[in-house]
Design a protein that fits this description.
Length: 161
Amino acid sequence: MCIGDNHEFASRDDMKRWWTCPGETATWCKLVWGFLLSVGLVLPVCAGEVEKLLFLVVEKDEVIASNTKAGRFDRLQLHAKERISDYQVANAVAVVVTNQRYAAYGVLSGGWKSIKLIAQEKTESIQVEDYSATIVSSERILNFYGRSGAWNEVRRSVQFR
């Protein structure tokens, strides 16, 4: 930072004059500086953070969602010959992949919401974060929004590999 005509580094006196608030407005000026500094330090830490509200207990024939926000437990019962192949859990949403369906749980929507697999469909990736989940499969791209409990999907174009 250069202050003065000779473009030298600012001296301690120059910096003191630059940062010092004038006379009667000194108190207000310091309050404003303090507020701006505290907001600048706190907002990046708190922005978008979702507390951990959801935990999964995976058993052989069922998955139990522990929803700490609502203070409840919700069971996902597996059907005959249904087996879990993968699952992911974030702060407020979870996805369970079986050989028959995709099941998702949202803390705010409450309860399990399922969507059937298409014949020969293979799961390629699962991403979960905060209230959202995205699944990429060989046939489609699906997303689940845990606040509303809604599934959405789009078919993938033919991929030649």
